[in-house]
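Q: Focus on the chain.
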Amino acid sequence: MKVRKLLVPKVSRKKRPTINLPLVGVLTLVLFVSAGYLYYPKEAHHFIDNIHIQLGPIADAEEGSPGSKSEGQEKNKTTKGDVQENNSQTKEDANKINAANLKNWTDEELSHFSKLNERKRQLDQREQQLAKLEEELHKQKIEIESRIKRLEELRGQISKVLTDRVNIDQEKVVKLVDFYSNM
């Protein structure tokens, strides 16, 4: 019996690691989604923008009973369409409507508008700075062009004087050569 155990090799029955199918499935899905995003970024971005995730139901109900509003309050409310219709009216009427709209806007919208106004002021200041810089640049360009013209005129005068000097020196050399050759 002991010999038989020694001659027959022992087969170990170790468990092979199993493949985690849900993990492989999720990774495959992620691979396909990322490949789709690489090849079709606009469509993928549009698809992602349409995905909305929420934790609970959202109720759009108004507080109070529907009949509790008075007719005067309903008339004071203005919608975007009303504002567009009133654009044909004078600026005074538009200011009155904007004042009425201020009452209906939330704090978040008002803070957003104040941020937009602040950004507009910053952009206007930046535009003024750029206009000043552009004007300064234009003045410097004109000044540089005038200096270049002056330098070109000076260069022309210098070259004229140099050619005159070269001609005079050549005449002197010719005279000296003639003088020494006659000796």
Notes: Residues 81-163 form one domain. The first helix runs from residue 2 to 7.
